[in-house]
Amino acid sequence: MPPNKEGAGGRDDRSVTGKLFTLLSVFSPRRTVLTLSEIAHRSGLAVTTVHRLVGELVERGILERDSDRRYRIGLALFEIAALAPRGPGLREVALPYMEDLYEVTRENVQLGVRAEDEVVFVERIAGRASVGVRTRLGGRFPMPPTGLGLVLLAHAPSEVRQRVLEAPLRRFTPHTLTDPERVRSVLSDVRRDGFAISDRQVTSDALSVAAPVFGGSGEVVAALSVVLRFGSVRPSSLAPAVRMAARGISRALTAPVTSSETTRPD
Amino acid sequence: MPPNKEGAGGRDDRSVTGKLFTLLSVFSPRRTVLTLSEIAHRSGLAVTTVHRLVGELVERGILERDSDRRYRIGLALFEIAALAPRGPGLREVALPYMEDLYEVTRENVQLGVRAEDEVVFVERIAGRASVGVRTRLGGRFPMPPTGLGLVLLAHAPSEVRQRVLEAPLRRFTPHTLTDPERVRSVLSDVRRDGFAISDRQVTSDALSVAAPVFGGSGEVVAALSVVLRFGSVRPSSLAPAVRMAARGISRALTAPVTSSETTRPD
Question: Which residues form the HTH iclR-type domain (chains A, B) (predicted)?
């Protein structure tokens, strides 16, 4: 979102909701802690507006202030976001199957969903010994070069596929597919085979094997992947395990909800 | 928060920020999907206000609408909340140590922080074979009966301890400590020993061993615990492993940030 600079005493006709989420969106993985004036500068909102809104957000725990008068995203926002069915909700259901897959493969296991034209990472189990993966939960990435993304894109509405393949395809390694026709053919294989292999498209030492997670109406709601070091295992040999785990999650998602809603934290 | 019912055409003088978060707070673990009129009813906000705000929130992906015109917390909120240093930020740092602890113990491993007078669960690794724990990420629980909570309460500002121990202490099992003086003495042991054991205080079949995670100025910023079935292991024998993992997280939290900010999702 481009900053919409207000003049001194100028009027900002964006809605308060717009201002609030503009303000919250200035925080980023590289800027998790900001001063009031940094927030004002990066949001393009007037300092007085920022001052008032930040005060209201701190009062509700949506932002937290540290001892240096710097602000960060607060726990109250995390508590609300934990209810997102496509985020932590999905993760709760998927976690046991992801753990099984990790036990069996000892490789990075990832779960993602589509948000518009990108994949958002919802969960990850990273093996210490497995190839380095710096996925950030809640982070976004283009779909075509990742296993998760290939699965999500293969099953996305055709207008999404059209839009993604008409945009330039970013190259990360010499192996990244940048020809839309080639990607289109891979996506058709993904639909036929029930899994995707993305071979060294993001980094030259890693590849991923991914399978779709289905919702109640047979639509693809998420994708599950294993990321492994290139040359360590024949990737297609992992496909059955990944598909099994993805089917397990699909079944759990569509199972009737049990009444075991008791909380037993300790 | 009690519903603040507006009369027909009545005026609601809460700020827009207040209304927005009142609206978002009607979603709960039992009510993750709501219709517009349910949101209005539960928030006590006028239907017209709810209609307008929900529209703005959907436009930003903060809420998502399903095909039955019901609303749920959206992925965009999860993406912002993923930046919370005391939530997912802490989790990112802690996860490898939690995985090690899980490998060694094969028991539930949990991470929590204090939010006002309660513990909020930030991460959990649950063993399939371990005792059932239904902790919900982002969920809250009273501090005194849990291992995590005992650690956090032992190191909380004295006014927090005062407030918590002056309120009635809820009983979950015959083992739950409900005498404030008894809890006070346990908290003093926790500070002396460097770990807490909560014995069947939440359910009669489980206990937990917890240790503090320290921030840069030596303050306790989180707690780490292992939850195990009563009678399976002598809990104090797990204390060294839990303390080791908690110290690992403390060290990682205060280590200078490396420049390995590259993203390699797949």
Answer: 14-75
How far apart, in Å, do the first and last CA atoms of chain A sit? Answer: 42
Q: Please, which residues have CB within 8 angstroms of residue B159's CB and are 6 or more apart in sequence?
A: none
Confidence at residue A151, expressed as pLDDT on a 0 to 100 scale: 98
- Residue intervals of chain B classified under CATH 1.10.10.10 are 16-80
* Interface contact flag, A16 B21, Cβ < 8 Å: no
Residues of CATH 3.30.450.40 domain(s) within chain A?
A: 85-254
Contact B34, B71 (CB under 8 A): yes
| Chain segment A126-153, per-residue pLDDT in tens | 766 666 666 778 889 999 999 999 999 9
- Whether pLDDT at B15 is above 80: yes
Q: Parallel, antiparallel, or unpaired for β A71-73 and B206-214?
A: unpaired
CATH number of B16-80: 1.10.10.10
Which residue type, as a one-letter code, is found at position A35? T
Q: What residue of B is the nearest CA neighbor of A131?
A: B264
- The predicted-structure confidence for B18-27, as pLDDT tens digits, reads as follows 999 999 999 9
What number of H helices and E strands is found in chain A? 9, 9
Tell me what ipTM this predicted complex has.
0.83
Q: Which chain A residue has the Cα nearest residue B265?
A: A135
Q: Do β-strands A33-34 and B140-142 pair in parallel, antiparallel, or remain unpaired?
A: unpaired
Tell the CATH topology of A85-254: Beta-Lactamase (3.30.450)
